[in-house]
Structure prediction request, 363 residues.
Amino acid sequence: MSTVTPDFEAARCVRYRYRYSACRRCSDACPHAALVLRDDGVALDAAKCRNCALCTAACPTAAWVPGNLARIDLLKQALAKNAPFTIACAPAGLAADALVPCLGALDGALLAYLGKRGIEATLAGAAHCERCEQGHVGAACLAAQVRARDALEEACTGETWARLTVGDETAAAGEDTFRPGRRGLFRRLIGRGVAEAEKALAAPVELPIIDKAIRPGPWLVPEMRELLQIVCRRGDGEPCRLPALPELRVASLRLEPGCSNCEACVRACPTGALQIRETTSAWHLMFFVDRCVGCGVCGEVCQPQALRQSDTVDATPGGAGTALKVLAKQRCSRCDRYFVSAAPQASCPVCRDDDAAFDRIFG
Prediction:
């Protein structure tokens, strides 16, 4: 197995974006206790890491980037073969068209995409979980990703998907199949060396650890979330309605009474699923399901607890966004600054508070 440990992109991590986030998905998925949770993100203990890549599959925001599992390249390989495709876990030592560090590190959207494209896939090596040091976690992660794949197939009613087989240890391999041996080992070592060299030459990105509850960072939609959009585009044009499973990396939000318009959810969101859009007359809190990965940081940072996730999701791609809240923009008659309010007001909250304070002090 590759010695290339996963890279950590702090700006994508919800624990970095919101200092008090309780997210521990990557830590819970690590069978080797190699991840240490901190209030500025997560730290990796390289001495404990076994490069199983399970943390990279568990993280919905792609804060962990695997060095030994290029999921898009795996899809390209499967599409190029355009025939039954076998994926095996490396520890099992089986012949396959592609090797992955652990079957649990695959993504439900990836498995669904293969089925939607008519490519029969076999996941070989599941029986090895009982003998594998990471199998107790890997088997559960694999089951969750297969469950997500099945939910996507069920949502795409009327489409014919290719079959997914799990646990066929006797799957035949093609000419380009990986077979353990000196030649295969040499290719793996060369690839490992190149990856290590590129990693060493890359300039590290040092983000300032700002001592604030919400920390800034750029938006990013992970590639597996973009792949999910393709899977959710039904051929008949009907909506793609899904159950709110955490493995599906998508959620639907609703806003309950109590929102204070503080915009904390927008600042903490790592993907831009929540945005403020303004016109000359109104302030809009917008939700874009195409960008949502279901990380839940918006609900954590919302102090009034007004943001909630729904039990079902309309994951149909290409939507214009949903306005969770709309407020009229007004101009204060005293300080002449703009403010937003659900009802017409002559003055802004600051000026009204000044008046109330004056009355309390002087009567």
About this structure: The longest helix spans residues 135-155.
